[in-house]
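pasting for the record
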Amino acid sequence: MVEEANFKENRVRGITHLYYSKPEVQKALFEFSQNREISPRYFEGFGKRPDTFQYPGDIYEMVKKGATSFHCSEELWNDPMDISIDASQKQNNELRIGWDFLIDIDSRYIDYSKIMAELIINMLKFHGVKNVGIKFSVSGDAPILVEENKEISLISIREAISLLKKRKNLKVLSLDKNRKLVYSKIYNFLEHKDSLYEIKHSMSTLPLKATGHHSVLLKTKSFNKQKFKSNK
C-alpha cells in the first residue's frame, strides 16, 4: 500500500510540473484569481490562509515547493490578504465585493436534472446573468478530430490526453463564438470515473458513450433542443 501511495504521489507531481509550467496555464490561473483567496494543496494538505498570487510565476514556484493543485474562493474580495479567521462575519462581509454562484444539480433521473438545469439557466438569463457554464463529460474512447503541425487526424480522447501529457501541441475541432468550425488550442483536460451511457441514433451504428452530465443537441426542422436519451 505504501509503494502504491508513493507511485500515485510521484505520478501526480510529475503531471503537475508538466501542466503548471506552461505560461498560458499560469496566465489563465493568475487572471482568474484576481480578488480571490487562493489555497494551494500539497497533495494531502492545504497551504496557509489567507494567500493569493502576486505574479503568474508564483504558481509554478508553489508547484516546485510541492503544490499539486490550487483552490480558490467563490467570494470576490477587495483584498484577499485582509481576510482574517479571527474577524467577525460582519467584518468579513465588508471586505466582500461579489461571489460566484454554483449549483450542483443531482438527481436519480437525468431527465429531471436536465429540465431543472434548463429552467435555472433561463431564470438566470432573465435576470441579466450572462456568464453561465455547464460541466459535462464523454468517455475516453470517444473519437475527436485534432490538428497537430497542420496535420488532421481522428483519435480517441484518451490518445489525445496521452499526447498532451507529452507536451504535444494539439488543437481540437470546435465551434467559435460565431458558431463556425475551427481548430482551437486545448488548454486543459479532466480524467475521472463515472457511470457511462450509450447514446444511439439512426444515422450511425456506433453509439456515443457519455456520462450522465453530457448534453446532446437535437436538431429538428423548427428548432434546436438539448435532449438526453440513454441506455446504460
